[in-house]
Structure formats: C-alpha cells, structure tokens
Write a structure and sequence with these properties.
By secondary structure, the chain is an all-alpha fold. It has one domain. The relative contact order is 0.10.
Amino acid sequence: MWSYIIPILTLLVGAVGGFFAGVYYLRRQLENMQSNPAMLQEMAKKMGYNLDKKQLGKAQQMMKKQKFRP
C-alpha cells in the first residue's frame, strides 16, 4: 500500500513546489525587465516583435504601472 502512496505524494509535492518556483522565477524576470530595456528588447525579439525606442519606452511604462508582487 505504501508503495503506491509515497510516489503519488512525491509527485504532488514536486508539482506544487515546481509551480511556485516557476512563478517566483517569472516574477523576478519581469521585475528585472522593468529597469533593463535590453532584456525587454530581447524578449520582444524572441516573440517576433521589433520595438523602436518609443515603443520600448511605452512598454517599460506599462510594466512599471503593473505590480508583480501581491
């Protein structure tokens, strides 16, 4: 019986822990992009967009208005 319970419990704990670690990492990256325009430009290029300086400034202002911390 324990040979079924322990693997399932381990899977659930790992999935929940991985989710929260991913959310933490993503929030940190978004916070770093607020102050680093090069990171924001790189992300936009990976998504297929080429931002000019005006668009980049607008995107930074939008990100600064958002709160990534609850």
